[in-house]
Amino acid sequence: MAKRMDLLQGTLDLLILRTLQWGPQHGHGIKVAISATSHDVLQVDHGSLYPALHRLEKQGWLASEWKLSDNKQRAKYYTITPAGRRQLRSERTRWQRLSQAIARVLDPA
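The chain above was modelled as a monomer; its predicted structure follows.
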């Protein structure tokens, strides 16, 4: 069984934006999707997730609207905006550069 890992600072925005590329989702659904996609290695706590969602919405990278969830409860659903898609591309590029640099340090030629 995989060990759970804390998220590196700055990666949560990337994970949220990527998750919302698959379609609108409420906060708990985003949390579950990140966990499931990472095979339960990455865990996002609500205390980190909701402030990040509000921050991304304020920056114009997410839009939201209130809807009824599958269990008929009122929930705020988030969608990625065109500006959010641009930010996701930028964040992915930065993450790839960072991970390649770390790999070079861990396994120098």
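The radius of gyration is 15 Å.
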